Amino acid sequence: MSLLEIDNLSIQIRDNRVLVDGVSLTVNEGEIVGIAGESGSGKTVTAMSALGFLPAGATAHGEVRIDGVDLLAMNPKKLRSIRGTEVAMVFQDPMTSLHPMLNIGTQLTEHIRVHQGLGRKAAWARAAELLEMVRLPDPHSALSAFPHRFSGGMRQRIAIASALACDPKLLIADEITTALDVTVQAGILDLLNRLRHETGMAVVFITHDLAVMNVIADRLYVMYGGRIAESGSISQVLNATRHPYTRALIDSLPEGAVLGQALVPIPGEAATPDRRPRGCAFNPRCAFAVDSCRSEVPELRELEVGHSAACTVDPFGSRLDRAQTHRPALSTLEDPHVAS
Amino acid sequence: MTLSTTDPNLAPDGIPVRRNLWLRTRKRIPVAWRRPLAAVGIVIILAWVMLAIFAPWVAPFDPLAQDFSRYQPPSLEHLFGTDAVGRDLLSRVIYGARVSLPLAVLLVALSVLVGATVGALAGYVGGVVDSALMRVVDLFFAFPGIILAMAVAAALGPSLTNAVLAIVVVSWPAYARVTRSLVLSLRESNYLAASRLLGASSGRALIKEVMPNVAGPVLVLASLELGNAVLLLSGLSFLGLGAVPPSAEWGSMVSAGASVFYYYWVALFPGLAIFTVVLGFNFLGDAMRDALDPRSARSVATSEL
Amino acid sequence: MLLRFIISRLGSAVILAIGIILVSFTLTALLPGDAASSRLGERAAADPEIMAATRRRYGLDQPLYIQFFVYLGNLLRGDLGTSIRTQKPVLTDLAQFAPASAELAIAATVIAIIFGVGLGIIASLRANGVIDQGLRVVSLGGVSIPIFWLALIAVFLFSITFRIFPSSGRLDPGQTPPQQITGMYTFDSLFTGNWVLFVSALSHLILPALVLAAPMVGLLLRFTRSSMLEVLGNEYVRAAEAKGLPAHTVVLRHVLRGALVPVITVLGTAFASLLAGTVLVEQIFGWPGIGAYAFRSASNLDLPAIVGVTLFVAIVYITVNLIVDFLYGVVDPRIRRA
């Protein structure tokens, strides 16, 4: 049994708009699993379901199990006892995810006190410890300060400390580096990696940035149009890519351009719940699309152990070697600032 | 480093983030639900305007004729009963619309005229003129208008004209503030500068470029204030500082019933008339505010203290 | 820094107060009513000699600007002049009537905060649902109802028909007021432990306070709702929910806290403009407060009293604005810094 098992999850909102369509996903203890995709791919909605959150007015089918217990069947009270303790979350923008009018100490201790029943003093001591863990300078005076005193990177460290407060088994990190400068990003990724080893927690890391993903994730799910396009270990997906969409994502990375490759933007617009093409959602933007792509939704098929892709054409399957010589492997594209 | 452009109004997954997505899982009722209130408001206002215009044909009796026995309870003949001197209350309530509605419009129009002129001048000229005018505005904001109205009525004798003037003296500053802030934001914008480059004189620019852009929000505020104007006027009349007998004015009619609780209908129906008119204006104003801007003109007026 | 803030605010407050006096002086001087004749009976006013003597005695023969500076000078010594009607110093009158109005205004504000903010929170959490629509009507009804009419209905229903609350005054006839501490009978009777008096004072207070609160409830409800809705969309609210906090903690500590600044602004404006309602409500409930005093003074063209009340109300307005500014800093640390 894995820590998080999402089983055939579908989420719809009004007007039958489908946000997530038959997604299955597992996260094992202690591993960092990436979910990559563009806006509207359903990656955040999928990850939020691991906290029992659904968009307003949404209905969900399938199961989302933490330690074998289905969150979707849980009552609100039980859900609250899991949030913050079993599963915690760090949000994209640290400028907006901390309450501007509550001091850091309150924001770090309120859930500790609710979930662990600690007194004020003990909780504040624990909070100082947490700030030390995330390497915030001068943790004790930081506790009585308000968020506006801190830079974006420092705030994100505080948000991570808050998420770690009750020793969660799983951390959802939703684009946590996107709003930060590159140098600050590296520090946060470094911290996350270190904390993962120290605490043994698993992380679901959401980003659209495959370069960041390459540095941090053990396994990767690539989502498009509410479905999983490709999944596998990080080297399987990025170095032995089997789905045209994943390939297109890699080709559109600016890092490629830095190394003398032409930057290839993905043509057309990303599919969204409002605008989802029939058949394979990627077919209008796909260079390899054939007639069947426009009518049939491709199944996710396991191609080798642990590596799956949802493409009936499978253009790179036979030409794998050529594709690899054609493009530099992503593992050589590490961000110069990131030491993993 | 982004792969796609991010719309600031969209959550990472393309769902509008107007309101909290996750807190309210309850299904939302369509926005159209709100419109009925606006429709009710329009119907109420139109009904009262019609009653005011066609009062002589609609009213069953002469509102001033003391033809009946006094303090008759509501009956089929006198739906709202009769008052202390035997006048038909229904007819008086209907004729009351001829007093309150035009005066409320006049009052608000005068306030807008004074306030918008001062505000536009302050915002457009700027500098010393601006700060001097705005101090005057501050002054009138702090000035208790009802005391002024009472003093004026005491000195000049109670009359509706005096009541209107007294209310105008204290209600124009709100429009001055709104107009000034609108003009200031316009002055920053490019197209005013552009029209100056084209050689338009200051006065012309003020009228041709500024006016149309300021008019919208100011008129919204003004329409929101119509209800308030009716309340203030009838309040002064209730205190005996506005309409004088035997005029069929709602506030003074309520006042006439205030001391005779046993004959509850004397105060009940004129008060109900005020309530429905103001409610109509506010239903309408509320919908307009929603439709135009969440940060309404009124909030500009109150938040710059 | 706080001190400098207070000093600068007090400075502008003093200038504003002087301006108020100037305006009320000018306006009362422009009024055709004769301040001297209003001090005399009709027969005495017809006698030019008595009139001239009266003018000299009250300094009314001086030019207006002299009168103005004389008034300012007296003001510095705490002398607001003598009321023509009561023949007592205006300051004494104000001190006598202000506590009753303060009691009424505070009670109304407390009621308005409880119902306005409370219902506003409920409306925002049920936005656009049936409950929200109902509360919208309640809110608009509150700001639309003529307060003098509501007062009459309240008296008719609760005093005359059901006899739950007394219809006028601050105490039952024959009761002596409690020993003066604040001048507010409910507090004073509580401090002196006089329960009978407390119950009486409270039962007299409830009805006028409820009536006075009605428009404020409407206003606060609407602003609380819209401000809460704006905050509900913030990521920090989602973050608080993701921490597994109980719903009431999320709503009260996180959402309401974030929504408080606009609510405080409206509350301040509403409190400062309570006077108009106070005049009407005090008139109907026979409540011996500033509103009733202002009404009688104005009706009698009692100029020193009118200027005195005007000044008093302006000072209340200025003070409330100062408190509002101070509360901004308490609620929002980002404002505190600036």
Give a brief outline of the structure.
The complex is a heterotrimer of chains A (340), B (305) and C (338). Chain B is an all-alpha fold and 305 residues long.
Q: Which stretches of chain C of 5+ consecutive residues score pLDDT under 50?
A: none
What is the typical, i.e. mean, pLDDT of chain C? 87
How many strands appear in the DSSP assignment of chain B?
0
Into which percentage range does the β-strand content of chain C fall? Answer: under 5%
**Order of helical and strand elements of chain C:** HHHHHHHHHHHHHHH
List the helices and strands and how they pair.
The complex is a heterotrimer of chains A (340), B (305) and C (338).
Chain A: E1 4-13, E2 17-27, E3 32-36, H1 43-48, E4 59-66, E5 69-70, H2 76-82, E6 87-90, H3 94-97, H4 104-116, H5 120-133, H6 139-143, H7 152-164, E7 170-174, H8 182-199, E8 202-207, H9 210-216, E9 219-224, E10 227-233, H10 234-239, H11 244-251, H12 254-258, E11 301-304, E12 307-309, H13 320-326
Chain B: H1 35-53, H2 55-58, H3 89-125, H4 127-142, H5 145-156, H6 160-188, H7 190-197, H8 202-238, H9 250-258, H10 265-292, H11 297-303
Helix pairs in contact in B: 1-3, 1-10, 3-4, 3-6, 3-8, 3-10, 4-6, 5-6, 6-8, 6-11, 7-8, 8-9, 8-10, 9-10
Chain C: H1 2-30, H2 42-46, H3 48-57, H4 64-76, H5 90-125, H6 130-144, H7 147-161, H8 185-191, H9 195-232, H10 235-242, H11 247-272, H12 274-285, H13 290-299, H14 303-331, H15 333-337
Helix pairs in contact in C: 1-14, 5-6, 5-9, 5-11, 6-9, 7-9, 7-12, 8-9, 9-11, 10-11, 11-14, 12-13, 13-14
Task: Supply the key terms.
heterotrimer, A: 340 residues, alpha/beta, 8-stranded mixed sheet, 4-stranded antiparallel sheet, 12 strands, disordered C terminus, B: 305 residues, mainly alpha, 11 helices, elongated, disordered N terminus
Describe the structure.
- The complex is a heterotrimer of chains A (340), B (305) and C (338).
- With 340 residues, chain A is α/β, with parallel strands linked by helices.
- Chain A has 13 helices and twelve strands.
- Chain A has helices at residues 43-48, 76-82, 94-97, 104-116, 120-133, 139-143, 152-164, 182-199, 210-216, 234-239, 244-251, 254-258, 320-326; strands at 4-13, 17-27, 32-36, 59-66, 69-70, 87-90, 170-174, 202-207, 219-224, 227-233, 301-304, 307-309.
- By secondary structure, chain B is mostly helical.
- The radius of gyration of chain B is 24 Å and the shape is elongated.
- Chain C is an all-alpha fold.
- Chain C has 15 helices and no strands.
- At the B-C interface, α4, α5, α8, α9 and α10 of B face α1, α6, α7, α9 and α10 of C.
